[in-house]
User: Fold these one by one.
Assistant:
Number 1:
Amino acid sequence: MSYRYFAKPVVLTVAVGSIDGEALSLISAVAARLTTSNAHVRLKVVDTNTSAKASELLATHKADLAVVRGDTGGLEDARSVLLLTHGVVLLMAPSTASGDSLGDLRNTTIGVIGGAINRPTVDALKQVYPLDRAKVIFQDVSIADGATALSSGRVHALLAVAPLTEKYLTKVRQFFQREHPKGSAPKLIAIESAGAVANVAQYYESYDIPKGTLRGAPPVPSDDLTSLRVSYFLVANKSVNNGTITDLTQSLVDVRRDLLSQYPILAQAAAPSTDADALIPIHPGAATYYNGNQQSFLDKYDDKLYYGSLLLGSLISIIVAAWRFAGSGNTPQSMLEPLYEFGNEIKGAKSEAQLEEIEKRIDDILKSELARNANGEGADSPAMAALSLTAHRLQYLMSHRRTMLRKLN
């Protein structure tokens, strides 16, 4: 709470884009939660529709943060803050289709859900598999058109990249409901050379889809099946202040707990890699938080509070002395001096309850002085300036003491 006395909220612009709008919904909920919890760092969300556009806004400094997929280009200045989830490459076909692995497919048209966003996936597969020679054709298909394209025979299989959560898996199953009205599940086609693909396109990694992911009984797949996955990150431009990112990272971890029941995908959120050769280097501010090296409020500001208080105290003493020397003592008695003495009481307070009582007494005095001044009975401008400085100093002392007590407890 005391931090808010000394710093206004910092607002960072975050660019978010996804073909299904789920990323926008998630980050908007996070932004709303940061606002309602009075977090020091807040988010202004900009919908970019695609990860590529979000990356572009980040690179051109039109956004401070962005939600991006690891295979998105233009991330040279990006630094990871949070690993949000993993998207798994799902290569799906009707259970009647021949071929159980990508290398077995011949004369096949594969519909690519999402089109351009998954073009890097197709390019990576083509670097390892001779798909052109096998007459395997890739055709862009929208999410809305996936089921129709499959049932009409326009495509023989579908390629999608999605997190393995029930919400996304339900959407995947819907692609096959028209093809199989009785509800039989599709089969998954293995990318058996996933390790080789990951070697040539390092934003991917080999991943085994667990047995029964699409259906439990009978299980689909019938055993763990090799595929690829790619990570989704919240990234910041490397120029964003380290301390700001440290504060944001801590708030995001807190928000994750609060929103987990509403957004189960947050269960997959984790600290990004801190390795020197990580795909996207971690932001130093985020690394500070994850390594447990963040400074507390007092670590950052204790000296400034202490010396600022001394400076204000000295300045007030000079004004009071000058005021007396000028003969202002002939005006109606001001409560400036007893107000100034509250500093010692604040420093000696043993509990927050004592601080609240002192604060109430200070408020009463200030209200009285302001009322007198409004009626023309109070002090002149120099005295009011001194009163303002005194109130400011007491605010510093009050915040400092309250934070000290909380730290001791």
Note: DSSP finds twelve helices and twelve strands in the chain.
Number 2:
Amino acid sequence: MESDSERVARQNAEREEELRRVPLQAIDKSKWPKGVRPISTKESDGLGIDSDGRLYWNGKPVEIIGRRLDLTTTQTTIAIIVAVFTGIAAFGTLAQGWAAYHDWACRNKQPSILACPATDGR
């Protein structure tokens, strides 16, 4: 069993290692919005920070507005599939619009990109 002095020494070593990996950051309270207060000493154990500076409260990441969007693998896959099918739909719409214009141009003796089919004079 670990003695109190050993436990304190281990905790201090762990804290020093944590601070080496993720150093303390300077706090500027003048930039805080109104209605925000510092956390109390009793609440401080709920806060955490990782090596990229992301904030955690009670083990859960705190959502920061203006940060990049992180998608899960499933969400990324679905987004790619939607983008591919949107591109296919856009190409289909373009082809349909071109075919409609070509048909209209041939019927109304207007310029068309391809030659109009020969008519039998009816």
Note: The two ends are 105 Å apart (CA to CA).
Number 3:
Amino acid sequence: MSLFSYAQGGVMLAVTVALIALKAYAFILALTFPAEGYLAADKLTKPSWLAILGIGLVVELLGLLAILNIVFTIAAIVFLVDVRPAVRGLRRS
């Protein structure tokens, strides 16, 4: 094998590990917020987000279809950029 092949394999491994970490982080955060917060922020329900993020994590871990990985990566990014700040901004009284 050439040096390029080793470098390419290393980059792909790093990307895969980063995507697994991103999806696991989003899933764990989704678990920590109260279900009422999702409704109060006018977002999908907590079980919906947990299903989306959980399936995305499993798809990434199993290395299934690349298009599914892209779709679930986008979903995790949407959760972290849009839903998390909205739900985190709400406080229990």
Note: The first helix runs from residue 3 to 32.
Number 4:
Amino acid sequence: MRNKILLAASIAAMLTTSSVIAKEEIKNSWLALSQSELKQVQSYNEEYKSFIDKGRTELTFVTETKKLVEKSGFKQLTDDSQIVPGAKLYSINRDRAMTLMVIGTKPVSDGVRIAGAHIDSPRIELKGRPLYEKNGFALFQTYTHGGMKNYQWVNIPLALIGRVDKKDGTHVNINIGLNENDPILIIPDLAPHVDRDYRKRTNRDVIKKEELDIIIASKPGNDSTVKQEVTNFLKTNYDIDIADLVSAELALIPAVKPRDVGFDRSMVAAYGQDDKISAFAAVKSILEVNKPELTAMTFLVDNEEVGNLNNTGADSSDLVDTISQLLYQQSPTTYNDYILRKTLRKTKVISVDVNPGVNPNWPGVWELGNAPKLGEGINIKLYGGGFNANSEYIAWTRNYLDNADILWQTSTYKGKASGGTIGSALSENNMDVIDFGVPVLGMHSPYAVASKVDIYSMYSAMKAFFLNK
């Protein structure tokens, strides 16, 4: 009897100890949330899904962001703007990049807090002279924007969105396929009955880039070809000629809406979560910054998926130009280039971008001790090889995340893997820059998956960054 009592006591002690440890070592973000916070997660994700459904490309994301921030009192930055504490301003760079600013109580010259993210995503684009006819079909010739697995983009509904710029200076917006009453476009694959000669292709060549041309019509007129009918359609409906497509930015994107994933609705599937998760969080978080100690900025850029190129990408001088303008308009008599360079050196940046998370079907591609897992918080990216933020900036980052009770993990690729962010472009201006993000399944696919709690955690982390002293 005595032995049974001792055994029962031992088991009770073990259970008590394990429950204490479990509480102290919570790793899954869902388990760390109160009922009130769970409601906030759900509410935030509903708004997120609605926003990215409209803002699918850099052009539409900037348009939707402008609407959102103006409702919150942001005004466009002009040469006459008053750079005073609490002022809320925005600047748009060629309709494809955007900077939001809330002026701090300390001078801009004391340094700036910047949350940077990109708003372009992998997609298919049209060539300059895209229209041709083949075997009774009218097609558009295409090329790709960003790294993708081409075979994932066939046999799915695609929408054509973007704009055409005409020689007279007018813009013509195109949006075909997103409305449920619109026709969709499609790139059909070969049936398994006739693809025998193609089965030995390697993964990335199952569908080659030149095989991504999209079918747009198949019905000729009584006295016209299918190609001529497409020309007539564009002229009748949009008042554009085929030659106008040379000066167009048109993207083929998945014509599917963001949806909840799982019996528990714990995840979101959507096109363009790379990097709309971060970009939307950067916008939402700065809307809640009223009068920070240091000036807060959200920097949204184009063309990260192709190397931060062009005057709307992170390699542009636009961000530095904007900081220069703030410095000059706040103190025109003392402004000089040396003041600008000192300000950049005092500036702290988070370059936020998603990265692949551990996939339950292929866990072996990660060294799991340093792998980002869905639902376990944001991830600090530690690439190694000279690409990391310096250790003191990492420590500073850990401190404000922990103080705000935001769970985080680290992300390091196994062996050598590709990938990058806008961080390297910003660090070239001598700012402190750290890369972090959230894990995503199916990155660069037409329909990637992310955890709702991670999506919300990114927003919480950015708020903590802006307000940390």
Note: The CA atoms of residues 382 and 433 lie 12 Å apart.
